[in-house]
Design a protein that fits this description.
alpha/beta, two-stranded antiparallel ribbon
Length: 288
């Protein structure tokens, strides 16, 4: 029995040592992950760097040179809650995910549509806003077109090889056009205003994009543009924050932030202000 006790003691000592070593290794790994998290980097830097894409009324350049809009208000509030300064990094939408992945900024706050193909590249937060796609068309070219409803649009006059949609390059509405109007042509532009201008000039028949951008165009150009489907929308989609993969702390912070600010009404209040058809902010915008 004495020999057995000695043997067990000799076996137990290295096992205890291995257990202690394993715990120490795990603690060191957890500490390293925390130290390398984007959240800690932001706190040490003292500045949150946010990728934004210029969309009306989400992110726009004001007359004083600053960025204003719904997404800007959201980003500013996030930075304030972190206790850091904010830096908005305007980025062309087609390149905004690559720019995030290469470290040009910490997070995308642009109401980006959450979808599986993008989720393979980035982590998405819980949705904090829901967007919808609407359509505007040329009265001159499409004023007499027959339409039914967004769900039955493949049977409409817009689904024709002689019809052209002017669209912003790299955006989700292009896929909506392909789905609802597979026979129509798509002409792509670098920004929304160029696409809308092509419709205003009578070169393209229609423009499809997120609301209320579409409705704003009709309000500004009632003699040339109309909404063939009225206020019916083609698609609703969840808008989320996008972050680099592998950072659980940052994702946890942003998900909790969304829960808090949806509950206290901040997100809904800011959305109602910026997306109102009255556009109380219009005089602040550059070029207006």
């Amino acid at each position: 029995m004495k020999h057995l006790g000695l043997i067990l003691s000799l076996v137990a000592v290295p096992l205890i040592f291995l257990g202690l070593h394993s715990n120490t290794f795990a603690q060191d790994t957890r500490l390293k992950l925390v130290q390398e998290s984007t959240l800690e980097t932001i706190k040490k830097r003292g500045r949150l760097m946010v990728g934004v894409a210029t969309f009306v009324p989400s992110a726009m350049r004001a007359k004083d040179g600053t960025m204003i809009g719904f997404q800007v208000d959201v980003a500013n509030r996030v930075a304030a809650d972190m206790g850091v300064k904010i830096e908005h990094v305007p980025t062309a939408f087609p390149g905004i995910i690559p720019a995030l992945l290469t470290g040009k900024f910490d997070i995308i706050i642009a109401g980006m549509e959450m979808k599986p193909s993008r989720n393979l590249q980035v982590n998405f937060s819980n949705p904090y806003v829901w967007g919808s796609q609407g359509m505007v068309a040329s009265k001159e070219l499409a004023g007499k077109f027959k339409v039914s409803s967004p769900r039955m649009s493949k049977n409409d006059d817009f689904n024709n090889a002689g019809v052209t949609f002017a669209m912003r390059r790299g955006t989700s509405p292009i896929q909506v056009v392909k789905k609802h109007f597979p026979d129509a042509k798509i002409l792509q532009f670098e920004d929304d205003q160029q696409a809308v201008q092509d419709v205003l000039n009578g070169n393209s028949h229609a423009f499809l994009s997120s609301e209320p951008k579409v409705s704003f165009q009709v309000i500004d150009n009632p003699d040339k543009l109309f909404k063939p489907y009225g206020d019916q929308v083609f698609q609703r989609w969840p808008g989320s924050f996008a972050m680099r993969k592998g950072d659980v702390d940052f994702l946890n912070f942003m998900n909790n932030w969304i829960t808090i600010y949806k509950e206290n009404g901040f997100i809904d209040e800011r959305f109602a202000y910026w997306f109102s058809y009255d556009r109380p902010w219009l005089d602040l915008v550059e070029g207006k």
